[in-house]
C-alpha cells in the first residue's frame, strides 16, 4: 500500500508523456548546451571576417554598438576594416541625431591618450522626422587603434559636429568583453602581417 | 482550459521558428559563412555589412540588401559578397551580408 502511494507520487511529478530517464536526458542536454555556449563565449571568429585579395588580406571587424551617448542615449555604431598592405585601418561609423549635423572630428580617448581623426561623409539619411542617420568614414593608424583597445578602463569616443560635441561611453562590463575580443583580433592581424 | 493551453503552446512552438536562408541548416545552432556572389571587378579595399534579424519567426526586421551593405562603406564597385547566418534553436536568427569592393 505504501509502495503504491509512493509510486503514485513519483509518477505525478512528471507529465504522462515523460518518464524519468527522458526527463533527465533532456535536462542533461540543456545543461551541456548552455555550458557549451558559455565556454565558446569568447570565440572571436564570429566577430570578424577576412578575405584574401590581390593587395593582401582584407580584415573586417563587424559593427560594434556598445558606445552610447550619456545625454541622448543614442548609440555610436562603428566597424573596422584593415588591408594588410597598409599601416592604417578604416573606421566607418554611424551616429544618430534629431537634426543633420555633419561630423567635423572624431576623437578616440583612452585615459590620457587622445587620437583625433578627420571624418569624411558617406551619407546622411533621415530615418524619420526626428532621427537623422549620419554615416562617416575615417582612417586611423593600426597602432593607435591597438592602444585604444588595450585600455583597461572604458575609453570614450567623441564626435565634434558643427553645433556641439557628443561623447560616447561604454559600460565597464561591455568594455571588458568587447575590448578583449577586438584586441585578440588585432593581435591576430599583427601576427599575420 | 488545459487542452486549450496545450494547443496554444503547441502552435507557438510549431509555428514560431526563426528560420533563416542558409546553405546549411543547424536546428540547434547555426553559425555559417558562405559565398553569395562574385563579380569580375578587380581590387577591394573596403568592406560593408548589413543585417536583418528574426525573433521566433514572428518578427523579422532589417535591411540585409547588398545595396545597404555597399552604401554603409561607400562601395561603388563590388568585388564579391558573402553571407553570414546565425541562429539559435529557431528562437533567434540573424542574416548578414558582407560586401567587399572599392
Give the domain tally of chain B: 1
Level-1 CATH class name of the largest domain in chain A = Mainly Beta
How much strand of chain A? Answer: 35-45%
Biggest interface and which pair forms it? A-B, 21 and 23 residues
Count of separate structural domains of chain A: 2
Overall radius of gyration of chain B: 17 Å
The number of distinct β-strands of chain B equals: 5
Q: Low-confidence segments of chain A, ≥5 residues, pLDDT <50?
A: 1-9
Biggest sheet overview of chain A: 10 strands, antiparallel
The fraction of residues assigned to DSSP E strands of chain B is: 35-45%
Distance between the termini of chain B: 61 Å
- The best one-word shape of chain A is globular
Question: Roughly what percent helix of chain B?
Answer: 10-25%
What string, H for helix and E for strand, traces the elements of chain A in order?
A: HHEEEEEEEEHEEH
Describe the structure.
The complex is a heterodimer of chains A (193) and B (102). Chain A folds into two domains: 2-42; 45-192, Immunoglobulin-like, CATH 2.60.40. Chain A has helices at 2-12, 20-39, 142-150, 172-192; strands at residues 48-53, 56-69, 75-83, 88-97, 103-110, 113-117, 120-128, 131-141, 156-161, 165-169. Chain A is built from four helices and ten strands; from the N terminus they run H-H-E-E-E-E-E-E-E-E-H-E-E-H. Chain A starts with a helix and ends with a helix. Chain B has one domain (17-101). Chain B has a five-stranded antiparallel sheet with strand order 1-4-5-2-3. Chain B is elongated and about 65 Å long. The relative contact order of chain B is 0.28. The chains are: A alpha+beta (193), B alpha+beta (102). At the A-B interface, strand 1, strand 2, strand 3 and strand 4 of A face strand 2, strand 4 and strand 5 of B.
Amino acid at each position: 500500500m505504501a509502495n503504491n502511494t509512493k509510486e503514485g507520487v513519483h509518477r505525478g511529478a512528471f507529465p504522462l508523456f515523460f518518464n524519468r530517464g527522458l526527463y533527465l536526458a533532456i535536462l542533461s542536454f540543456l545543461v551541456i548546451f548552455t555550458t557549451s555556449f558559455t565556454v565558446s563565449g569568447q570565440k572571436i571568429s564570429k566577430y570578424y571576417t577576412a578575405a584574401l585579395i590581390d593587395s593582401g588580406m582584407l580584415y573586417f571587424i563587424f559593427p560594434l554598438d556598445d558606445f552610447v551617448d550619456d545625454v541622448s542615449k543614442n548609440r555610436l555604431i562603428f566597424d573596422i576594416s584593415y588591408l594588410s598592405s597598409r599601416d592604417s585601418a578604416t573606421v566607418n561609423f554611424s551616429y544618430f541625431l534629431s537634426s543633420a549635423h555633419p561630423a567635423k572630428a572624431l576623437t578616440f580617448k583612452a585615459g590620457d591618450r587622445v587620437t583625433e581623426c578627420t571624418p569624411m561623409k558617406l551619407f546622411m539619411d533621415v530615418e524619420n522626422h526626428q532621427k537623422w542617420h549620419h554615416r562617416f568614414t575615417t582612417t586611423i593608424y593600426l597602432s593607435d587603434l591597438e592602444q585604444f583597445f588595450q585600455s583597461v578602463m572604458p575609453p570614450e569616443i567623441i564626435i565634434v559636429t558643427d553645433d556641439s560635441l557628443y561623447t560616447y561611453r561604454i559600460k565597464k562590463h561591455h568594455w571588458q568583453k568587447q575590448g578583449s575580443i577586438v584586441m585578440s583580433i588585432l593581435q591576430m592581424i599583427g601576427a599575420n602581417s | 482550459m488545459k487542452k486549450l493551453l496545450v494547443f496554444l503552446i503547441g502552435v507557438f512552438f510549431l509555428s514560431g521558428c526563426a528560420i533563416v536562408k542558409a546553405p546549411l541548416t543547424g536546428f540547434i545552432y547555426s553559425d555559417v559563412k558562405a559565398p553569395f556572389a562574385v563579380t569580375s571587378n578587380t581590387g577591394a579595399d573596403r568592406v560593408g555589412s548589413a543585417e536583418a534579424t528574426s525573433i521566433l519567426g514572428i518578427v523579422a526586421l532589417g535591411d540585409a540588401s547588398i545595396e545597404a551593405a555597399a552604401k554603409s562603406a561607400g562601395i561603388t564597385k563590388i568585388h564579391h559578397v558573402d553571407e553570414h547566418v546565425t541562429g539559435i534553436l529557431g528562437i533567434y536568427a540573424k542574416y548578414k551580408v558582407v560586401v567587399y569592393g572599392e
